[in-house]
Each structure stands twice: as structure tokens, then as C-alpha cells.
Amino acid sequence: MGSALFRELARMVADLAEVQGLRSFALPYPALAQGALDHMVMHCLDAGETPPRSLPELWEWCRTRPAGDPLFAVPASLVTPGATLVHPTGRMPTRSCLEVASHGPDGGVAAHAGALLGDLEARCGTGERYRQCRRFLARHPVVHQQDRFGPAWSRAVWSRVKDLYGPLPESALVDGVFLRCPSCGLPALPPDGAVPVPGPSAADEDIWCEGEECPRDKPLELIREPDQVWILRRSLRTFLVLPHRTEEAARGALERAGIEYAALSGPLSAYRLRDTGPGIVDIQVYDRLQPALLAVHIADSASLADCTLVVVPDALAGRDGYRKAFGDALPALLRDRLVLTTPMDLVPDVERAQREETDDA
Fold it and tell me: pLDDT digit string (tens) for 45-97?
């Protein structure tokens, strides 16, 4: 019950974060939120614990009670015990929340991103147009009015993708100013709710951005005309924009090594290597904080190549337990076909996969 409830709460948080004026919610609550609150109340009563009395209080629980809390008891083999659904500083859905909300048969938030990209691919008509549009989205999570007058602006691309953008949400503004992380380009918020003074600050490490993992070696970008800014939909910011840096690093590694590849159609950051011998070798690129959920997601794919190299950021793969959690969550029959790697290790792993395919033949 606890794991299922944790996922229901994750989907509630993800949905409510898209609603303007979240902090002023009044009864009646949205149906999804009311259902999650009711289930939480019943779960607490069964567990002999005082339940939350309102949606704001439940939201606070999602900020302070992690997956490993006895109330949820989500297995550590599925979600890291310290993961919360609402970020303590940003008070918005954590990346782990969106990954948990994507776990399950319907794919949740990640599936929404895939559906948007699938529709875009169909509208583009050709693979090259789609790749141009996809690259634009990944590199421009935020678009300012003045960007449209730059020399690199493509009116044709913008006409195809502009419906995937919307106005900045109220939750992204601080005193009427929009703050953007210089590393990931996504919304950021300071811990004290005040616009930071330009330059390094002792509290920089407490600044939240949607990327969550970004270094704090540069000051936040301040945009004082938020009404002239459009922002990409959240599902695409998380499941397209964030993996893009790793995707570009992986492609760069292949090109420097002279390894040829072709982009695969569909929403995934996926490529098929050429001249790999008798076996098919694919590459899929992700940036997911929860390795077990990533393994389950890939294992549930409709089809997999003879060997699939799963590329994640170097920093993630280097975390204690990340590789093991990914491997342990895979079905035994897939452990030899799915290889977790990084842009740094990609070329050696490709060469190893090619040798193994040749030997097996």
C-alpha cells in the first residue's frame, strides 16, 4: 500500500505543480488531489497516525517525508530512501517525484513527454525536420521575445514547436523576476524567496533549480521581463532538456572515435550504431536520479537490440550504489544485453560490445 500511495502522491504533486496559484488552493480540491488526500487519511488511520488535515498540509508532508519513511516504506531497491516528492527549497516537484510519477503501465509524466515528441515528429513530416525541432527544444527550454530577432532564429522551426511553450508559471517568479540556472537553463529559486544579489553568495549551495544537480559556480540569470518569456512544458524540460547534455557528450565521443551512428525515430534519445558486425547495438541516453526505476522502464520497452548501451551522466554513474541498483533491478535475462555506461566510458564499451557480438557469431 505504501509504495502505491507514494506513487499516487507523486502524480498528485506533478499535476498540482502545473496549476497556477497553487498556494491559494481552496475547497473543493481538484479530484486527483482530493483522492490522494482521502487515501492518505485512510492509510494514516490504519497505521495509527494522525493524518494531514488539508491539501497544503499534505504538500508539506511530501516535502518532509521521504520514500523511506515508515509511513510509505518504499523498498530501497526501488527508490532511494531519502528521496522526497517536493523539494525542500524549491517547494516544487523533485526530479525523483517526476520519475516515480512515470513508473507504472501508463508511463505518467515521461510518457506525456514522449507523446508530445511523437506528435511533433508526425507533424514534421521528415526525420531531419524533427531532429531540428527536437534539438531546438532541448537547447531552448526558455525563450525570450528578443531571441526571435537573433541571427540564428528559425521561423520555420518556431512555427512547429511554439505550441509546446507557455507563459511562466507564478511559482517560477520571485518579486516579479524570473531566475534561471546558467548550467541547465531551467527555473531556479533562492532559499529565502528574495532575488539574489549578483555575484557569489554564501547561500549559493542552497539555491534550487529544476536540474537539482548543477554546480553553483556562476550567478543565476535574472530576467526582469517575465511577460516576454515562454517556457517549455515541464515534462519536456525534465525528460528531454536534462538528458540533452549527456546526449551531446555521447555523440561527441562517438564522432571523435570515428564510430558511425544513425538516430532512431521516436521520442527517445536513441541511436543505432553502424558496422557493428552480426549483432545490433543501440545507444539510449537518460538522465535519471533513480537507477532502479530507470532499469524497470528500459526493461519494459517493447523491443531491445542485441546489445543496448544505456548512457547516463558520469556524475550519476559514479555515485555509490547507482550501477548496482540498476543491475539488480533488471530481469536476469536482460543483464547481459543492457550495459550502463557514461560518455567517458562509451567508446570502450562500444568496442567491447562489438567484440562480444563477433565472438558470439
Answer: 999 999 999 999 999 999 999 999 999 999 999 999 999 999 988 889 999 99
Set of cell numbers at residue 339:
550495459
Crossing angle of helices 346-360 and 242-256, in 10° steps, is 60
**What are the start-end ranges of the E strands in the chain?**
142-144, 165-167, 173-174, 177-180, 188-189, 208-209, 221-223, 229-232, 261-263, 270-273, 281-285, 307-311, 338-341
- Compute φ and ψ for 69, nearest 5 degrees: -55, 140
DSSP β-ladder status, 221-223 and 177-180: antiparallel
To the nearest 10 degrees (0 to 180), the angle between helices 322-329 and 291-299 is: 30
Per-domain boundaries in the chain: 2-109, 125-232, 236-360
- Specify which residues 188 forms β-bridges with: 209
Q: Label each residue of 31-42 as H, E or C.
A: HHHHHHHHHHHH
Closest CA to 178 of 133, 209, 139: 209
Contacting residues for 328 by C-beta, under 8 A, at least 6 apart: 77, 292, 295
Q: Which helix (H) or strand (E) holds 98?
A: helix 95-101
Please report the beta strands in 225-337, taking only residues with DSSP state E, as ranges in sequence order: 229-232, 261-263, 270-273, 281-285, 307-311
pLDDT digit string, tens, across residues 294-337:
999 999 876 788 899 999 999 999 999 999 999 999 999 999 99
Q: What is the pTM of this model?
A: 0.93
